[in-house]
Amino acid sequence: MKSSLALLWHGLRRNVVAGTRLALFLRVSALDYRVSPPDFAVLLAFIAALTLAGGLLREGTPGAVNFAALPVFLSQVPLVLGACVIVATVFSRRELVLGLGLALFASDPLFEVAGAALTFALDLVPVELAVALGYAFIAWGAATALRALVVFTGWHGTRSAAAAGVLLALIAGLLFFLPRSELWLPDLPPEDPDAGPPSIADERLFHRQQKLLDEALARLAPERPGVEDLYFVGVAPYSAQDVFVRELRTVRTMFDERFGTAGRSIALMNGTDTLAEVPIATATNLRAVLEHLGKVMNPDEDVLFLFITTHGDERHSLAFDLPPLNLAQLTPTALARMLNDSGLKWKVLVVSACYSGGFVEPLRDANTAIVTAADATSSSFGCAHGNDFTYFGRAFFNDALARTFSLTEAFEVARRAVAERERAERLAPSSPQLWIGASIREKLLSLERRLQAR
């Protein structure tokens, strides 16, 4: 028994070292691998353990193994072996099925480590570099797979080209149709009743809310005749995760400084550290803000920029959460009614949430532009506790709108960046959406020219 375990451990070391040398383009041969069904199984178990450890390292404790992700993880095996069956048939060499399949997986430990580093790097670099890194990572994986083919078969003209096409099709299929699922899921930080965080249940904070809203509305500067003023309204209504409040704070500051909304911006937030300073985010407060702006803004000149960042569900309902209050959720129909009742004409709406594409159809009209972080049937990503941005928020606001005043240009940059990041992390595409009404196009161009002149 001890001897068998030692052989398996020796085989694992050989395979991981050979896979690493293969991916680093160092000298390696087919004989450097130890190929057998037990060695293949041990290698897969090691990769799963490494993936689990990487998730634990990134997310920390407490948490739990995500057993629901195991079928997705294991589904790679028949797909890879199926491609190797085709390659083995092309070369009439049955032994290639297991040998080449093992070699393709043997480089995964290095790619797991590099992928984790890339995930952190994407948060720190400009969007152009992030896109380049994503392409480079994919190209590296493809080149490694092709090198494995050459190591095990050599190069034989047409047959090798056909086999290479099979492996490239496999990689494309894994990237686009098999989203990565994390094997480790962190728990949300538990609430400590003894720590005494601020709560809306505190009578003083509860009764302060109307005053905070009245003061915020009173501070809004009036419109300027002859000037296309931009008014910013930001809503971060989900209190259980601070990423939404963090994101809104940064976006509001950027709009005040870069887009000239200082004195003409207002935020509604649900966060434990904002209860004494910022009006809470409720559907009622949002309606009050929009009604007030309908009286302040010039309907022919001024533009409303409404940004909502939160969770969404398959029914296209946006999550408004602030325990112990039982808040009404925001639906597309309810938001459309609020905007219609306010009398506001020119509107740019940005909804960052899962399934937010469901807001496009009910809200679109000739005077409205709508940007959503996902289509009506897909999730968006990056809403982890402690993050500064969601994936879409970082790409659209922090990277794209920080460099351009064009809504369409910023959306295209963000759409490509989000798609690259999702492919690099093997996530299902969120497919951000953009709708621009026919009449507001010229208004946005005029506003863009004015902001550039500033």
What does this structure look like?
The chain is elongated. The chain is built from 16 helices and 8 strands. With 454 residues, it is an alpha/beta fold. Helix content is 54%, strand content 9%. It has 2 domains: 2-186, no CATH class; 203-453, Rossmann fold (3-Layer(aba) Sandwich). The longest helix has 27 residues, at 127-153. It has helices at 2-23, 37-59, 70-74, 76-91, 96-106, 108-122, 127-153, 158-177, 203-218, 243-258, 283-296, 332-342, 360-363, 391-401, 407-424, 440-453; strands at 63-65, 184-186, 230-236, 265-269, 303-309, 346-352, 368-372, 433-436. β6, α13 and β7 form a beta-alpha-beta unit. Strands 4-3-5-6-7-8 form a 6-stranded mixed sheet, sandwiched between helices. α1 (2-23) crosses α6, α2 (37-59) packs parallel to α5 (96-106) and α11 (283-296) packs parallel to α12 (332-342). Mean pLDDT is 90; it is low at 191-195.
Detail the topology: elements first, then pairings.
Blueprint: H1 2-23, H2 37-59, E1 63-65, H3 70-74, H4 76-91, H5 96-106, H6 108-122, H7 127-153, H8 158-177, E2 184-186, H9 203-218, E3 230-236, H10 243-258, E4 265-269, H11 283-296, E5 303-309, H12 332-342, E6 346-352, H13 360-363, E7 368-372, H14 391-401, H15 407-424, E8 433-436, H16 440-453
Helix pairs in contact: 1-2, 1-5, 1-6, 2-5, 2-6, 4-5, 4-8, 5-7, 6-7, 7-8, 7-15, 10-14, 11-12, 14-15
List key phrases describing it.
single chain, 454 residues, alpha/beta, Rossmann fold, 2 domains, six-stranded mixed β-sheet, two-stranded antiparallel sheet, 54% helix, elongated
